[in-house]
Amino acid sequence: MVASFIDENKSLKEEIEVLRYRLHQAIMNDKSRDEILELSKRLDTLISLYYRKK
Q1: Is residue 8 within 8 Å of 49, Cβ to Cβ?
Q2: For residues 15-41, average pLDDT
Q3: Which terminal CB of the chain, N or C, has fewer other CB atoms within 10 Å?
């Protein structure tokens, strides 16, 4: 059970890092406002999940 919880948090943390990178790239490459907003919302959701499970 503990290993599953740790794996789940590690997976969430990795997804957060990927989304942070993608959001940064979208901003640096002047992507559309909608695309940046969508990435930002997804990142916010994952961060909330991560801290709720902690």
Answers
A1: no
A2: 95
A3: N
